[in-house]
Design a protein that fits this description.
The structure holds two protein chains of two kinds.
Chain A lengths: L6 H4 L3 E5 L8 H11 L5 E5 L5 E2 L2 E2 L17 E6 L3 H13 L4 E4 L9 H16 L3 E3 L5 E4 L4 E4 L6 E9 L2 H14 L2 E7 L8 H10 L5 E6 L5 H11 L5 E5 L4 H11 L6 H10 L3 E3 L2 H13 L7 E6 L2 H13 L3 E2 L4 H10 L10 E2 L6 H13 L5 E6 L7 H14 L5 E5 L6 H9 L4 E2 L2 H45 L2 H13 L7 H10 L7 E4 L2 H11 L3 E6 L12 E5 L2 H18 L7 E6 L5 E10 L3 E8 L4 H4 L2 E5 L5 H9 L3 H5 L10 H17 L3 E11 L4 E3 L2 E5 L1 H12 L5 H7 L2
Helix pairs in contact in A: 3-4, 6-7, 10-16, 11-16, 12-13, 13-14, 14-15, 17-18, 17-26, 19-20
Chain B lengths: L2 E6 L6 H14 L4 E4 L2 E2 L4 E2 L2 E2 H10 L5 H4 L2 E2 L16 H15 L5 E5 L14 H7 L4 E6 L3 H16 L4 E9 L1 H17 L4 E6 L2 H4 L3 H8 L2 E4 L10 E4 L4 H10 L3 E6 L3 H8 L3 E7 L6 H10 L3 E3 L4 H7 L12 H14 L2 H19 L1
Parallel strand pairs in B: 1-7, 1-8, 2-7, 3-6, 8-9, 9-10, 12-13, 13-14, 14-15
Antiparallel strand pairs in B: 4-5, 11-15
Helix pairs in contact in B: 1-2, 1-14, 10-11, 11-12
Classes of the chains: A alpha/beta, B alpha/beta.
Amino acid sequence: MKEQHLSKLFAPGSIAVIGASRNPEKVGHAIVKNLLESGYPGKIYPINPREEKILGLKCFKSVKELPTPGKKEEAVELAVIAIPASKVLEAVKECAQSNINLIIVVSAGFKETGPDGLELEKELVTFCRKKNIRLLGPNCVGLIHTHTPVNASFARGFPRKGHISFISQSGAMLVSIIDWSEIAGLGFSHFVSLGNKADLHETDFLEYAGWDPTTRVILCYLEDIVNGQRFLEKASHISTLKPIIILKAGASPAGARAVTSHTGALAGSDSAYDAAFKQSAVLRVGNMEELFDMAFAFANQPLPEGNKIAIVTNSGGPGILTTDQVEKAGLHMARFTAETSKQLRAFLPVEASIYNPVDVLGDAGAERYQFALEKVLLDPQVDGVITLLCPTATTEPLEVARAVLKIRQKIPRKPLMGVFMGGKEIQEGQKLLREAGIPCYTFPERSVAAMEGMVKYHKNAASLRQKKLLQEGTAEKEQKRQKVNTHLYNTAQVKATFYDALKERRVVLLGHEGVKVLTAFEIPAAPSQLAREPQEAAQKAEEIGFPVVLKIASPKILHKSDIGGVVAGLENTQEVKKHFEGIMHRVQRFIPDAPFYGIEVQKMMPPGMEIIIGSSFDLQFGHLLVFGLGGIYVNLFKDISVRLAQNLEEVDIDEMIKETKAYHLLKGFRGSNPLDVQSLKDTILNTARLVTSFPEIREMDINPLLVYEKGVCAVDVKITLSHDLMANVHPALERGEHLVEQIVERRI
Amino acid sequence: MLKKIYLMGRSGSGKTAIALGLSLLWKEKGLKVSYLKPKTAGHNLQHNQDADALLLKQTLGLPWEPEQIAPLNFESIYIFGPSDHNRPSVEKMEARLEESFRDIADNDGIMVIEGGRSPCAGMSLSLDDFSLAKRWEAPVLFISNLDKDDHLDRMLFYNNFIQARGLYMLGNIFNNVPQAILGKARDIYRPLLEEKGYKILGIIPAHPAITFPTVAEFHEALKGEILSGEDNMGLPVEEIVVGTMTIEGALRYLRRALNKAVITGGDRSDMALTALETSTSVLILTGGLYPDIRVISRAREKGVPVILVHFDTYTTIGMLQGIVRQIRPQDSKTITLIKEEVARHCSWEKIEEEIEYYRVFSAAKGQ
């Protein structure tokens, strides 16, 4: 296997600790001590101009004074810096001179402290980039690799060796987990504290851990993601190899606010993270407990092939409760084959329940458990098993645990979990199971949640692999198709429409302009024209053909119908003229100061099913695409599904539609005819292509899009462009440069 | 006889900008230009000197002191009972005006006289713009904002009234015309006025750098502490968005508004940071709450001024009512832009011809 470019960071030849100290209260002391205690096999060079020896190691005045290595493998390949922020750059420069190109800066005092710190951090990064130095931190705890072993951090303790990589944006969280892991019996391969993420960030480490053979599961605690597009690309590849489980902080509005003030990063919307995780088969968990429950299960258990779960219990109540949880989680209770049932009936007492959940009764001993577990695990209809135990007078929890272990060894292919309900009585049994890698909980919910996570990951990763295979097979075909399509799209018309709006210093397109943009991208839309006067409106209505709708044209009015700015079903020129004035009066009464461009005359379309297709630009992940039940009740029903627009495929669109209740209406509900889902899919795809071809579209709403038995038609569209475009284009306009092409060149 | 022009219009109509633009163009043409602003108002005063007087003095290189250029101070309260002996009498005020007029009058050039914040202000003392224009025999150029139909009728009223007072009406300028009604102004308003016999000598579209108040004006109104962006106080503010909702709710409004002031609590770092990613000219943080340090970092990177005020959001909005653009002598870019806009959209040479025609005409009448 080709070595990954960050592998040296976790297994450097030798390490220099700049700012090493004899004072046990200093971070520079803790790092040297941790390195020594971790059993790091390379050489450790403490650097401090005022000391001779630190923790028995010879101390050097500066990096420049380090001895020339006898062997190439002994060269200093990593420097850990723990000196005041103002002196860090100087130290990094010295490292550069000594060809050290991996650096961890644990020192604080950078971006997190304000504008001056930010400047300092920028200088540091600029220098590192120039010299090809990779930098972890600043303001981080450091890193740990238990297999090297190396502990280049100032965290207290050293975790057990295992196969979980934990990448954390919170240093404190990492320190606590190391401490906790000892009593939880959880083993880790890597700990990485990301700090300010000035250079190396989550995706770099995901990429490394995805490659790293000692890592089976990747856990992340993240507050934001630096480069959404790259994250998505890497995560969707790594997910097909091993699970990535992420706890993303800031899911609630108040939490997002806290994240913003903690990291200074403008958090993307939570729905964007959700969509990104979904599309890259990343498991998102809601809390710390879930994160580590999943980690334990994934690290030690085989993946379930499907979602059919069996329960073996010694008491009815907990069995039923767990059954409820299984169904609630979207898993299924397995139905045993006749053979399994027959065998269970033959051996278990007559009062025992031989169907799922299997009740081996309160007096069950280890042997009965063992028999039932074996039969159930061997059943081809079962994908995973949960063993429940309540400590009755005759139960021997430890013996049952041993029986579970025996079965585990005999049948290792399917996930097996334990729920030993109780306290003192079951303690030892629980411990025995956990130490052998079998997740064992006190109550059923956690075991079901862990099982659910595993099932979900297995399914998502499989469909991602499938999609990739499909993509590879059809990449060329798709490329050709895209080319044809892009050629078909009238991009010049879109550019010209944007230009017209910008010329009038508007970033919000008027309705009729929106229609032009849609039709340019093959999205059918009801014809619409702008009129300033009643007479003009009447004339345009005649051109378009009756019946028509009149709509107020003002970028400041978001909800036109709420203020009487829309009149539908006009059949002749008299009606058009009359209602033109009516709309003007109403609008001026409600919003006298709203700039008013006129009234749009639009072809009135026959009723159809109302759908919304929307898009919003997310800072981290680019355009999001929203599909759902449209019309005026969008906000009430919130029947929507969200995906990222980039690389959206027809399979994603299929899923997207099926996720909503709207899908059931589309395929025909209670006697109504099915609607034209193919045209709808084309429209979603074209919308995705429109927003990705024109990233300057910041927001877009087609609401409603009418779906008919044959065809679709957009009747209202709102498009907001990026203000940066204005900043770039307007000076050009002022200089009299009327080149449409420039807009495209200058767009961000 | 001296060539004069009296610019009349309501507060915020852009009289000063037009006076400046016309003066600069005439000066470039080689004419001598002088400027008189008979009545200054309290809000226009900087260190007790009229801001417009200072602007024109410095830009045109006028030799007179600001106190000579703008001799009378008309605060919002200027009518007092006879017992108030501390106030100058009407006679004294008239004398002071005359003195300034005489000092500034130059027979070779054009004297640009700028009216008060409303043409009627001072009518009770016979010191309104109509009376002064009559006294000094100055032809009138009427300037009006034009964004609603009733502005046109108001304009018609003033035109009628000015003529009824026996003044000479040079014509009108539609100023700060928003893009949305530029077409209507040209195709409907203009012919309508011309049909009634009134001239339109210019239609000037709204321009963000001239029309809208800048961050500096916002700061002057609010005072408050400037936390960043001291160098960008000249950014125009076109709209005000109050950020008190959730980010997802606010984003749509933040994205739609150009060059805006965003007013939000100092503790709303999320709102402040989101606003900084959209077109924001100034962040006004209320409640005396210092923002997170990261807000300042980002604002500094983006060059956006951040003003911290101790009032609550509601009070802050109240204090921002009626803010108008105040052009300063150091805004050289804006001053050039004004000149260019006036040159492009006004018949400035025709205005001069009309002034000359009126001078010859009234001189002949006088003989």
